[in-house]
């Protein structure tokens, strides 16, 4: 309890479907993590500013608008500009399989598509957090 | 420490890292606080408290925007509850403050209570000190949504805003002990709702009954989502600070709070000693059996432990 994993959950882009983000926030909470929930329609700049101030271990982004190929890499790039290289970055939403390799190459650590169990996500985070 | 120098020069990431360190590691906390002590004591610390859903985060957002217009730097610490079952938490106060995330003169940090019950977390005070040293003129602490008795904020803030909303109960609620006693300014949010005037009257009548009061807390009606009444509230916050400084209460409160803080630190070290004694060799289990079997009573057992600790 002394050192919980801190996760920022954000919804970049313009779609308003936050049920998935809220569900995952709740699941991570129940897994003992501190979840900073930032709400809808976040710009990559806002997400990175929040991640820096909250000093999170993980950034989780949910997107259903189709703009993932632009927004996810943008977040990674802005983090690098700030010198942040030890944060685990995961994304979720309706993301075509074909897009996943390029997102990973851009620096997103994992992509979780519909049907993923919350346990899979929780385990991935617990096993891959970069900061101890 | 290099991190401290960076923080002092305004680096937000260093500031965030230091807050994490004081939250997670008591030994680190001690080192950091010792080093920054000389830079603290300058910020005006404002506590915002009230029941869940009263509008604390929304009001914080509007207050901060107004303070920024005065060219001030504002730090915000927003506390939300940690689950007593899993240790997890949802820290959701930033949702109402999205526009502030990118402002260079704002720093927002969310904290879980991590088992602490007074409306704040154990590390909130130290996080305030870090923001204070980092040069934030105002530090706003938003407590968890409170019920009736979470009053730790009085030990940490200079000015306390008690956020009320219409329709939460009759006038008996307003004369109960606890949180109704700690407000320096009573803010009635959602004043566009039916019953706001009545809530204001009830609080006013409650204040009429207070005795030995140097300063009567003011009552301000606002509607935070519509940004109504915020200027008046800022004026009252500044009036309260003027009062604190002119009356000497400012110094008096901080002196009292430091005394409490030192005593708490001593208690927490003593508790470690107590735990180390009572943990050893199942001795406590045996003693408890003696109590159940009526061979000893709780006070005798206490005295046995105390004499062992004193040796």
UniProtKB/TrEMBL annotation, chain A:
Q: What is its EC number?
A: 5.4.99.2
Q: What keywords is this UniProt entry annotated with?
A: Cobalamin, Cobalt, Isomerase, Metal-binding
- Give the PROSITE patterns listed for this entry: B12_BINDING
What are the B12-binding domain coordinates in residue numbering?
Answer: 4-132
Q: Does the keyword Isomerase apply?
A: yes
Listed SUPFAM superfamilies: Cobalamin (vitamin B12)-binding domain (SSF52242)
- State the Gene Ontology terms under molecular function: methylmalonyl-CoA mutase activity
- Which cofactor does the UniProt annotation name? adenosylcob(III)alamin
Domain of life, per UniProt, equals Bacteria
Enzyme class, spelled out: isomerase
Tell me the protein's name: Methylmalonyl-CoA mutase C-terminal domain/subunit
State the organism of origin. Answer: Sedimentibacter acidaminivorans
Q: What is the lineage of its organism?
A: Bacteria, Bacillati, Bacillota, Tissierellia, Sedimentibacter
UniProtKB/TrEMBL annotation, chain B:
Q: Which SUPFAM superfamilies match?
A: P-loop containing nucleoside triphosphate hydrolases
**Taking every annotated instance into account, which residue ranges of this chain make up the domain AAA+ ATPase?**
42-186
Taxonomy, superkingdom: Bacteria
Keyword Ribonucleoprotein included in the entry's annotation: no
**GO MF terms, alphabetically ordered:** kinase activity
Q: Which Gene3D superfamilies match?
A: P-loop containing nucleotide triphosphate hydrolases (3.40.50.300)
Q: Which UniProt keywords apply?
A: Chaperone, GTP-binding, Hydrolase, Kinase, Nucleotide-binding, Transferase
- The yes or no answer to whether the keyword Hydrolase is present is yes
- What Enzyme Commission number does this protein have? 2.7.-.-
Signal peptide residues on this chain, from the entry's feature table: none
Q: Which PANTHER family match?
A: LAO_AO TRANSPORT SYSTEM ATPASE, LYSINE/ARGININE/ORNITHINE TRANSPORT SYSTEM KINASE
Q: Which family does it belong to?
A: Belongs to the SIMIBI class G3E GTPase family. ArgK/MeaB subfamily.
- What's this protein's name? LAO/AO transport system kinase
Q: What is the source species?
A: Sedimentibacter acidaminivorans
Upper classification of the organism: Bacteria, Bacillati, Bacillota, Tissierellia, Sedimentibacter
